[in-house]
Amino acid sequence: MDVTALSLDTLWVLLGAALVFFMQAGFAMVETGFTRAKNAGNIIMKNLMDFACGSVVFWFIGYGIMYGSANGFWGGLDFFSLKLTSESMAGNIPTWTHLIFNTVFCATAATIVSGAMAERTKFKSYLIYSIVISAIIYPIEGHWIWGGGWLSNLSIAGWTGFHDYAGSTAVHMTGGIAALVGAAVLGPRIGKYDKNGKSKAIPAHSITLGALGVFILWFGWFGFNPASSYGLSSVDNALDVSNVFMTTNIAAACATVVTMIVTWFRYGKPDVSMTLNGSLAGLVAITACCSAIDPWAAAIVGAVAGVIVVFGVEFIDKVLKIDDPVGAVAVHGLNGIWGTLAVGLFGREGGLLLGQGAGRFLVQLVGVLSVAAFVAATMFVLFIIIKKTVGLRVSAEEEVIGLDVMEHGLSSAYADFMPTTIGNGMDDDESPVAPGSVEPQVAVPVTEVTTNDGHKISKVVVVCRQDRFTRLKNAMNSIGVSGMTVMNVMGCGLQKGASEYYRGVPLEINLLPKLKVEIVVSKVPVDTVIAAAKQALYTGHIGDGKIFVYNVENVVKVRTGEQGYDALQY
User: Fold this and answer.
1) Which neighbouring-strand residues pair with 521?
2) What is the domain-level CATH number for residue 456?
3) How far is residue 168's CA from residue 105's CA, in Å, rounded to a whole number?
4) Where does the pLDDT of residue 51 fall: very low under 50, low under 70, confident under 90, or very high at 90 and above?
5) Under 8 Å CB-to-CB from 53, ≥6 apart: which residues?
6) Does residue 417 form part of some domain?
């Protein structure tokens, strides 16, 4: 045994396992960002638990099913063993290494489903089907492909062996098909389709979270694909891994660019969320063929994936009427199929488009169809059983309020929206005076007055563009108005925020970020305030804002007790 080679190969695969595990965070961020804030905690919990539960059942059951015929039922491993020996090997690496690397792959397949079924699935039902996928369904089809099963030995027209280097079919298409079936059985979110079946946009609550997730996934994919070489100790391994790094990145980049261009033409503006999906689509598509093709072919694979994801999302949403909040079916399902077939089209060996016959392509096609049929059938039965027993979907009330509150007792997953604890545990008459403050009886002495001396008090509310606030503030200061309250708000006028698209669906009302500025005046004439505000805010374009004027009955200054006109003076 070459100890140096063993150590290098083991280190390489373990590093890959760590990177693929980090992808779990990426999936969590994508799914959370692309859905609504009221369900963020629920989605995080599902992504956490499918890995935790999946790790246990894959170790205990799934690994033995997946690699049983090759290494004995338990994969050549006594899973209660405390140590490994030189016989405890899976190829050229220790079996524990092989097991943990396959565990993180299994978790990826399971977590894909949660995005398509987000915002309306019972948490306990999610745990059930996630465990079944990790323990039985993924290991069975994984055995066919990677564990010495029938697909790895399938021979058609002179070509033998189904090729799925890192899992376009075994991981991504499996997750995508399961997601499609689950979302179809589950039904759409409340309000997703109108009474005529027309799709309505439900925008993501945080594109930035989604983008963070995509960057994490792209980074993690450099472990997902290259570490599937299961070694880095030979010249052949080094050449293969180098090619895989290059093809993985170029496919993702091309898919991203093409998706941006397609959405720009179709919707009038480049769609951010769809372009993020495009990056993932390119990564999914290249996963099967990253080792079998050259970079020029990877660019084509990625470019086609960028087109597939746009039209796939639209077809699933508008034609099939299946509600997939994150686009998981198009990203993982459709592009998993495309990437697997691309092996038979562009493969250096057996590529149909390279004039080397149809044998390899036919083997890939049979593999895709058989795995898709198996996953669709088994997942349909599983979801129906869950639906008829413990129930698959939350109630309408739970869905409307949000799963964070109803499933987990979490007011919000975001600190900014969490209720603030009032008080310090003492009764009011026991509370000490805060440092630097004074008691009311020793405050600046004033005479309380209620008269306004003929001065009318008015509140002027200005709703304006965020980028005009500095001009407005300077204008108010120049006319003697310095006190104002400023809030970030979302809103629209008669134009309903103008016509925009979200993932190919027109937004009926597009709420735009605005500033709401409240100013209470008495000494400064209201007309002067209005004139200064108009001059500061005017651009001549729709959305310059509006000014509202209200009568104010009274004003009380807390520190001094002054009221009315006097309360507004320095």
Assistant:
1) 458
2) 3.30.70.120
3) 11
4) very high
5) 127, 130, 131, 134
6) no
